[in-house]
Amino acid sequence: MTTRLNPYLSFRGNAREAMTKYHAIFGGELDLAPFSMFDMPVDDAEKDWVMHGFLRTAAGPTLMGADVPSSVDLPPNGVVAITGDEPHVVRGWWDALAENGTIELPLKQAPWGDYYGELTDEFGVRWMVDFGEPSSNNT
């Protein structure tokens, strides 16, 4: 099973610097994708900010992080990302977390091909959910 819970750090314009430092500390592989890569609707000054940062550490754990556009509030309780390639499992978790919560971004197919959505559960915790088909290579 490759479904995972990952810490997802939120930054305001310095995600590239932070994730690069974490890469230097923990080693591994770092992937950074700016908002411009997917033509996301952000302020022109924020197009080069990190939309998604993914660090596969040398020790194995994963650390994710991104810049939150200035048009969006920083999540007060942080974010937990759920990623995987078992749609029925991840969609079931989405449905359970959404119960008594608030859907911030409906779960639907994203520009990068996976299904993606965001919600805040009844306890105020923000969740980002991303899944593809079993044969896809998810981060």
TrEMBL record:
Which Pfam families does the UniProt record give?
Answer: Glyoxalase (PF00903)
Under InterPro entries, the record lists: Glyas_Bleomycin-R_OHBP_Dase, Glyas_Fos-R_dOase_dom, PhnB-like
Q: Where is the Glyoxalase/fosfomycin resistance/dioxygenase domain?
A: 5-129
Q: What is the name attached to this protein's record?
A: VOC family protein
User: What are the top taxonomic ranks of the organism?
Assistant: Bacteria, Bacillati, Actinomycetota, Actinomycetes, Micrococcales
